[in-house]
Design goal:
The chain has two domains: 172 residues, Methioning gamme-lyase, C-terminal domain (Aspartate Aminotransferase, domain 1); 226 residues, Type I PLP-dependent aspartate aminotransferase-like (Major domain) (Aspartate Aminotransferase, domain 2, 3-Layer(aba) Sandwich), CATH 3.40.640.10. The protein contains eleven helices and twelve strands. It binds pyridoxal-5'-phosphate. Pyridoxal-5'-phosphate (PLP) binds next to helix 4.
Length: 424
């Protein structure tokens, strides 16, 4: 009966059966993911209970937002979940890049140096830092930047990291997810090793982790292994698909305070910022985030196995351990990238009837195709994919609010690539 429903939705019996075969082998890994989700679900629940979240917390304030009990309690909940002294969780933080920029700009002063010991940061941070010249960058404010790339095998270049740390080094930024690069994603344990090495050389340096796409993939977070700050977006994992906007910074009291005074104003800090009735989606999204993340993770592993078997190179591969929800598939041809994205779009709950096309997006040096049919515009915890139309013609995809939808999306993408004649 299920096969018939899939057939009505455009999945041929051959593709359906292949998917089922692969899934049978994945059961032990899926069981492990469910265990992680269970631990994280209880962690979030306990935080909500310990902070005595009440019905009143779900309401909002307007105007200045003084004494917004829901906002203040939510920040306590985040601090509990990430085991930090404090947190800033706001709808006024517009996206992940904004949260990261805020954390950097508020904790660095003219004359300080920022170090990335894990290679090039996420594209949008290049303009924040001033790697690419940009108005208002850290560089314009006299904050310098140095970078140590990972070794060819993905390891940390400890010798050069030690050399790069100097009297000006104030903050070290560590990106957990590979983002849209081919380097491996860092496990929380490896992040911990890097932080201990750095703190041994300079104990008072601030270690910040860009936590985007990594939240709830493991049972521990970077703040459990020495990070002073974790930063991320609420339209990725921790928003659980329900938060329509927002970002967070969780960490040491002083780091979070600095960020709050920068977000609002010196003297005002965390005391203002009306929540405008948006908080129930933040609370409920956080509550759902562990299981939503688990579904996305299963989808990524399923896709890796399906497309690897069809002969494409996939990063991470079919058996590697996972530390974020992103999956890359290299097609080697523009047609592969386009047909994959068409399949993802076709499987979306919103805008499934439109056909995505490659276009010249600002900030990119080639045409890019994006597939997203999301309830929250641009949300990448929902099933979404994109790929630049240039060699090696790889597509990056992530998300899926439920495992069942991720599975259907991946089967539809596979069918689309197959229908384009790219799979024997
Ligand atoms: C998504 C992402 C960002 C930026 O977040 P936006 O919400 O797109 O601004 C930064 N770093 C990493 C690793 C990301 O995945």
């Amino acid at each position: 009966m299920l096969q018939k429903i899939y057939e009505d939705l455009g999945i041929t019996p051959e593709v359906y059966v292949l998917g089922e075969e692969i899934l049978k082998e994945l059961n032990p890994r899926f069981d492990e993911i469910d265990k992680v989700a269970e631990i994280n679900q209880l962690k979030v629940l306990k935080a909500l209970q310990d902070c005595k979240v009440s019905e009143a917390c779900l309401l909002g304030t307007t105007g200045y937002g003084y004494n917004d009990i829901g906002r203040d309690t939510l920040e306590e909940v985040y601090a509990k979940v990430f085991h930090t002294e404090d947190a800033l969780v706001r709808p006024q933080i517009t996206c992940g890049t904004h949260a990261l920029a805020l954390a950097l700009m508020s904790n660095l002063r003219p004359g300080d140096e920022l170090l990335s010991p894990v290679g090039k940061p996420y594209d949008t941070l290049e303009e924040v830092i001033g790697i690419r010249d940009s108005k208002g960058s850290l560089k314009e404010y006299g904050i310098s930047y140095s970078q140590v790339d990972l070794l060819p095998d993905g390891g940390f270049d400890y010798d050069n990291i030690a050399k790069a740390i100097n009297e000006k080094t104030k903050l070290v930024t560590i990106q957990r997810s590979k983002g849209y690069q081919t380097r491996p994603t860092l496990s929380v344990t490896r992040i911990g090793e890097l932080i201990s090495f750095i703190k041994k050389i300079k104990p008072d340096v601030i270690c910040m982790v860009d936590n985007c796409y990594g939240e709830f993939v493991e049972t521990i977070e970077p703040t459990d292994v020495g990070a002073d700050m974790v930063v991320g977006s609420l339209i990725k994992n921790p928003g659980g698909g329900l938060a329509p906007i927002g970002g967070y910074i969780a960490g040491k009291k002083e780091c979070v305070e600095n960020a709050a005074y920068r977000l609002t104003s010196p003297g005002l800090g965390k005391e203002v910022g009306a929540s405008l009735g948006i908080l129930s989606s933040f609370y409920q999204g956080l509550f759902l985030a562990p299981t939503v993340t688990a579904g996305a993770l299963k989808g990524a592993i399923f896709a890796a196995n399906l497309f690897e078997r069809a002969g494409f190179s996939v990063v991470p591969n079919s058996i590697e351990s996972r530390h974020d929800i992103i999956q890359a598939v290299t097609f080697g041809t523009p047609e592969g990238v386009v047909s994959f994205c068409e399949g993802i779009q076709k499987a979306a709950p919103i805008d499934s009837f439109v056909t995505p096309e490659p276009w010249d997006m600002p900030g990119y040096d080639s045409k890019v195709i994006m597939a997203a049919g999301a309830f929250v515009s641009g949300s990448s915890i929902e099933l979404s994919a994109d790929g630049p139309i240039k060699p090696p013609f790889a597509v990056y995809f992530q998300g899926g609010l439920t495992w069942q939808h991720a599975k259907f999306g991946i089967l539809t993408a596979y069918q689309s690539v197959k229908n384009a004649g790219l799979i024997d």
